[in-house]
């Protein structure tokens, strides 16, 4: 089990991402979450190359926030096309707060 700031839950939500990829090209895609927490998410279905540290916009329903890419899946593995993101504004949660577990230790296992 990894140490995380917030507990995660498995959730398949459709989100829009926007930003600039590692090659300087505009990135605008609809992808899905694999799991979410109050301050981050694991996104899957990414087409293109993003690198840790890059900033993207994530929109869920009518909620939008900026996120920093913290992790990317390696090409050629079953994690290819996945990225981990953390919010740039910890006071803002774009997910439905009612479905999230209360703050505390993360017990989620992949």
Poorly predicted runs of 5 or more residues: none
Q: Based on CA inertia axes, which overall geometry fits?
A: globular
The quaternary organization reads as: single chain
Tell me the β content: 35-45%
- What order do the SSEs take from the amino end to the carboxyl end, as H and E? EEEEEEE
Strands side by side in the biggest sheet: 2-3-4-7-6-5
Mean pLDDT rating: 88
Number of beta-strand segments: 7
Report Rg. 13 Å
Largest sheet: 6 strands, antiparallel, barrel
Determine the fraction of residues in helical runs and give it as a percent range: under 10%
The class by helix and strand makeup works out as: mainly beta
**How widely separated are the two ends?**
9 Å
What attributes does this structure have?
110 residues
